Amino acid sequence: MLKNRIIPCLDVKNGRVVKGINFVELKDAGDPVEQAKIYSDGGADEICFLDITASNENRDTIYDVVERTSKNCFVPLTVGGGVRSIDDINKLLNCGADKVSINTAAVENPKVVLDSSKKFGSQCIVVAIDAKKNGDKWEIFTHGGRNNSGLDALEYAKKMEDSGAGELLVTSMDRDGTQIGYDVDLMNKIASKVNIPLIASGGVGNLDHLVDGIKLGNASAVLAASIFHYGKHSVREAKEYLDSKGIPVRV
Amino acid sequence: MKVTIVDYNSGNISSVINSFEEVAKNKVNIEVTSDLGKIKSSDKLVLPGQGSFKGCVDALNKTDGLTEALNEFAINNKKPLLGICVGLQMFADVGYEETETKGLGWISGKVSKIDNQNGKFKLPHIGWNQINIVKDSKLFRDIENNSHMYFVHSYEFVPNDKNVISATTDYSSNIVCSVEKENIFGTQFHPEKSDKIGLKIIDNFINL
């Protein structure tokens, strides 16, 4: 039986791990390679690096981080943030990333998703969707949550599936950093709309939120940052908890 | 001993290289090459493969003499070869991803899309799934039955002769996830991404 995945996410800036509260206030929380190793040894099903301010800044530091991590962690590694082109994707994959997540570039130029999934295979193309509720629908935001594209999240998700995305990483901008739980309504609506796996993100504050992401949000995988980061919970604790709630996990 | 990872532009092979180097740790020489001479003189070959069946077969054919070199290695000389993911799928006679494409024809059978039961199951089949070991294989030495391995694929190998199947996994249907035919080994899952237990499989292959 396929297991639901738990994915700790490390926000990385200038080669160091930081924690994002609504993508703004940042705090240094350690070395990404060391952190990733702790997570993979602790049973993380995948590791995710998000180069958060990369859209605006020099991002060469991430290549070194990815390279060192991939020589130490033998679980899948997803890297996102500032991925603009086929060339960026190629570089990250060559450094040892297994999947690359594309956000802003996919909105501005969906052909990047089409071309990259053809060239590298859908298995390594994750489209990251940052969505914010507006009335009874959700709109897609880009540039780390700064710009509203006005696109409808559900339609966009379907379009990304058709373009060759292998997975969708869906973040609720309303919930991100709040620790009040995933926007399970958003997750469930997108998960029902597409046939590719959905990774839920944004808002996890306790272990029940992970359960909700899977049971109510219909996510195949749940991503979280801060609850693992500051030692509030270990990945293993999270898995044992999910297991106790009848959710299939790799233990 | 020399273990060679065949580099034929089959997509991202960094993780395969990293994992073999981690396991080999100076004991065994790991080479990554498309050089035909080096491939032929290797003791063991690893045939990775990512992306589509057609993409990988096309990439193989782009290197003159590579398919012949692989045939000589695995079929004539019967030296151990491990195919991973699409690397395994290419053992088949034919694949149906994108368009009908001829495979290496080493293990008779076809590669077709996983039946997702009208959208009831998500595709790709991504994540950790348990393997059901159905044949005593050297690849699974010290690997417990029902161990978790990391999968990512939308197509499955359906061999004609069920005796080549060494492990299966349950998803929307029972999927073949490991095959063994004499000196030819293949895993649909990614041992290089399957944590310590995956590295053990790589170790088993190196120590065959």
Can you describe this structure in just a few lines?
With 251 residues, chain A is α/β, with parallel strands linked by helices. Helices cover 35% and strands 27% of the residues of chain A. Chain A has a single domain (5-244), classed as Aldolase class I (TIM Barrel, Alpha-Beta Barrel), CATH 3.20.20.70.
Description:
The complex is a heterodimer of chains A (251) and B (208). Chain A is built from 10 helices and 12 strands. Mean pLDDT of chain A is 91; it is low at 20-28. The radius of gyration of chain A is 16 Å and the shape is globular. Helices cover 35% and strands 27% of the residues of chain A. Chain B has a single domain (2-206), classed as Class I glutamine amidotransferase (GATase) domain (Rossmann fold, 3-Layer(aba) Sandwich), CATH 3.40.50.880. In chain B, the strands form 3 sheets. Chain B has an 8-stranded mixed sheet with strand order 2-1-3-4-14-13-12-9. The relative contact order of chain B is 0.17. Chain B has helices spanning 14-24, 36-40, 53-62, 66-76, 86-89, 195-206; strands spanning 2-6, 29-33, 44-47, 81-84, 94-95, 101-102, 109-113, 125-130, 132-133, 148-153, 155-159, 165-170, 174-181, 184-187. Helix content of chain B is 25%, strand content 31%. The N and C termini of chain B lie close together (11 Å). With 208 residues, chain B is an alpha/beta fold. The A-B interface holds A 1-5, 40, 45, 70-71, 74-76, 93-98, 119-124, 166-167, 195-197, 220-221, 250 and B 11-12, 14-15, 18-19, 21-22, 50-52, 55, 116, 119, 122-130, 148, 150-154, 170-171, 192-196, 198-199.
List keywords for this structure.
heterodimer, A: 251 residues, alpha/beta, TIM Barrel, 10 helices, globular, B: 208 residues, Rossmann fold, four-stranded mixed beta sheet, 25% helix
